[in-house]
Design a protein that fits this description.
By secondary structure, the protein is mostly helical. The protein contains 25 helices and 8 strands. The N and C termini lie far apart (61 Å).
């Protein structure tokens, strides 16, 4: 209990330290803010335009939180943090029910200190929410079919599984059905345990799934005829099979991301996967094998996709954490010691590199100048020192045959180090967030003054100003909404010039190079009221 409370303080205490960054954090916070402000809980909107790329689960949760706690960074990240924290507790609970108390505690420690789980549990994207529901579906299936499960347990946990798949469907679409379904089919084919299909409670399960998902899909389709084709064809099949989303990466890109994401537990991953495939004595249902199949299938599935983002493989980490805990609980200090020595050596090398690079100047640019990088470097150095101290202590404990203490201090070092890297990222806020720019102009930008966004759309500025913009010569991801409501934007710069000259008062935001171009051509009368490395805000004189 003490560990959980301390972990909770670390987890939730840092949510509002960093400003929202572009693009995802600003986008999903703004969609939720507009939903809360408009009271329309059916049609998601971004910048006042229909936005159907993702289902509404996280928008609903965050919009409700905005109404209760107010519009701020802490509330914007609350759903992500809650689902991430719940995912850690759920992994611990599942491992305890399957393998015993010590494995449960270790599973929570492993997942709660893994880089991906900590980092993505504090960044406002949709991935942690869908990962939690997929994890809940997996856990529900494991507990429903374990050898000790009664008929009542089987029914109740399978209903939880169906409800969790509905939650995943409402969080990010068809993967809520595809990923659990495919993992189950592969498991049944490999093991020949066809009897599992008779214990799925298909009637009750499908009815529950339909009751939870269909109302929104029916309502949004009735109000927006363009929804079905865009959501199911464009956002699912075309995104997976083509490069329409412009997120093409090599097939192997998730290999280094997996290694980074499971750190600092990587050196035991191979043994844990091999151990999970082996059947335990007198075991009929094989949870370890299903955990391996789950992890491998999701990894391969997204590796084959033509659209790849780093967070896509997040749902594999709870399963890997349970497998790692199952393996680590049987290891003694002598077995663990070389791994902790390697971790300490790597941390020492990273610490030396961090201190030998005085300002990380090679990472600077016009948009992110050296002083920002220098400020962030101090946090990076602190994180490497935390890692070095923690892993060295783990080596010391393992040498004295105190395996649990070694694993515990490794988990603490991983969680603290990742938290420092996250918090330190706020040093770059003036480059990747519009918070400071918004503070400079918020008194000059009341809702009644037209605010144009020229050839760009800053994802964080609408949230911080709590208003929408008139897009000028810009479409990108808002193309669907602009086709449905073209009157809400201006297609050409010439049309914008006419509007600008007609306005009594007006503001506009644009990139520095576009500002220089307009200034050189004397395109419109304007004066600069604020600027940073990425944006210039002008007003009509």
């Amino acid at each position: 209990i003490v560990l959980t409370l301390l972990f909770g303080l670390l987890w939730f205490g840092q949510l509002d330290y960093r400003k929202l960054v572009k693009p995802d954090e600003g986008r999903y916070a703004e969609i939720s803010r507009e939903m809360a402000a408009s009271g329309d809980w059916v049609t998601p909107r971004l910048n006042g335009l229909k936005y159907f790329e993702k289902p509404p689960m996280q928008y609903w949760a965050t919009a409700a939180a905005f109404r209760v706690f107010g519009v701020n960074e802490w509330t914007a990240r609350l759903w992500t943090a809650l689902t991430g924290f719940a995912g850690v507790l759920l992994a611990a609970f599942a491992a305890r029910r399957l393998y015993g108390r010590h494995v449960g505690l270790l599973a929570g420690m492993v997942l709660g200190s893994s880089f991906y789980q900590v980092a993505l549990g504090h960044i406002n994207t949709l991935d942690m929410g869908v990962s939690f529901f997929l994890e809940l579906a997996l856990v529900g299936f494991l507990l429903a079919h374990r050898d000790q499960a009664s008929d009542k347990d089987n029914r109740n946990w399978m209903l939880i599984t169906w409800a969790a798949m509905a939650g995943a469907m409402l969080s990010k679409g068809l993967i809520g059905l595809v990923l659990p379904g495919a993992a189950l089919v592969i498991y049944v084919v490999l093991t020949g345990q066809w009897r599992l299909l008779a214990r799925m409670h298909w009637g009750k399960g499908l009815l529950l799934f339909a009751l939870l998902t269909l109302p929104w899909f029916v309502l949004v389709s009735q109000r927006n005829p363009e929804f079905l084709h865009f959501f199911f064809i464009h956002e699912h099949f075309q995104r997976f099979t083509t490069d329409v989303a412009r997120r093409v990466e090599p097939w192997w890109i998730f290999i280094p991301l997996l290694a980074l994401g499971i750190s600092p537990w990587l050196s035991w991953l191979g043994q844990s996967l091999r151990d999970g495939v082996r059947a335990e004595s007198n075991e009929s249902f094989r949870p370890g094998l299903l955990l391996v199949i789950w992890s491998v299938f999701i990894f391969v599935f997204f590796s084959l996709s033509q659209s790849k983002l780093p967070a896509y493989i997040l749902p594999v980490f709870p399963a890997l954490a349970i497998l790692l805990a199952r393996y680590l609980v049987r290891q003694d200090g002598k077995t663990l010691q070389p791994h902790f020595g390697l971790l300490a050596l790597l941390a020492a090398l990273l610490a030396i590199a961090a201190w030998l690079a005085p300002s990380f100047r090679d990472f600077s640019s016009d948009n992110t100048p050296a002083e920002m990088i220098h400020a962030y470097a101090a946090w990076v150095r602190a994180a490497t020192l935390i890692g070095l101290a923690g892993f060295a202590a783990a080596w010391w404990f393992s040498r004295r045959q105190q395996a649990f203490n070694a694993l515990l201090v490794t988990a603490v070092a991983g969680a603290l180090g990742t938290s420092l890297l996250l918090c330190g990222h706020n040093s770059l806020a003036r480059s990747n967030s519009s918070y400071h720019l918004a503070q400079a102009i918020k008194d000059l930008a009341p809702p009644e003054v037209p605010f144009y966004s020229i050839k760009t759309y800053d994802q964080t500025l609408p949230f911080y100003l709590q208003r929408t913009f008139i897009l000028v010569h810009y479409r990108d991801e808002l193309d669907l909404g602009l086709k449905a409501e073209p009157h809400k934007a201006i297609d050409t710069l010439e049309a914008f010039r006419v509007r600008w000259n007609q306005d009594r008062r007006a503001l506009a935001i644009l990139r520095p190079d576009d500002y220089d171009s307009l200034l050189k051509d004397n395109f419109i009368p304007m004066r600069v009221i604020a600027r940073d490395t990425r944006r210039v805000v002008i007003a009509k004189p």
